[in-house]
Specification:
Elements: H1 25-43, E1 47-49, E2 60-64, E3 67-76, E4 85-88, E5 99-104, E6 108-113, E7 123-126
Parallel strand pairs: 3-5
Antiparallel strand pairs: 1-2, 2-3, 4-7, 5-6
Length: 152
């Protein structure tokens, strides 16, 4: 070992990347929501497929009886009971998705066909526990538990 620096597989102190094995907690919460939606779809008779990359426009693909659905999943683990739970869609292209499924902990699902969302909408509130006051904006409560909307 004359004059050679030891090879290290450790993390450089100058690196801004997170250490291996430590990612954002929201990533894991999002993945858990996707798995819960996948389990529900499997129970309903769908075959479920996940994209290899997490950078795709859809979170999962569901097929049943020659029907294929491109599914975007959003999950909230701490829904607000007295003023509604906000769901952020971020930058997404609705033309690449067939259905948006929102999971609110514990075991509340909204099944929203993308055609039913207002164009250009990037966030909305859900009120599974009822609305405290009358609010303006699109009401999506009719999609609570509406798994029947998936069948073509």
């Amino acid at each position: 070992m004359s004059g050679k620096k030891p090879t290290s597989t450790g993390r450089s102190p100058r690196s801004r990347r997170r250490p291996a094995g430590r990612t954002e907690p929201n990533f894991f919460k999002g993945r858990a929501g996707e798995l819960l939606v996948a389990a529900k779809l499997l129970h309903l008779g769908y075959d479920v497929y996940f994209p290899i990359s997490d950078r795709t426009a859809v979170d999962l693909i569901a097929t049943c009886n020659q029907q294929t659905l491109r599914v975007q999943v959003k999950s909230r683990w701490d829904p607000v009971k007295n003023r509604g739970t906000q769901v952020l869609l971020g930058k997404w292209d609705p033309s690449l998705v067939d259905v948006l499924i929102v999971y609110l902990h514990p075991a509340i699902y909204y099944v929203i066909p993308v055609d039913e969302l207002e164009a250009g909408r990037f966030s909305f509130c859900l009120f599974p526990y009822g609305r405290g006051r009358k609010r303006s904006g699109q009401c999506l409560e009719q999609f609570l538990g509406r798994w029947d909307l998936l069948k073509a």
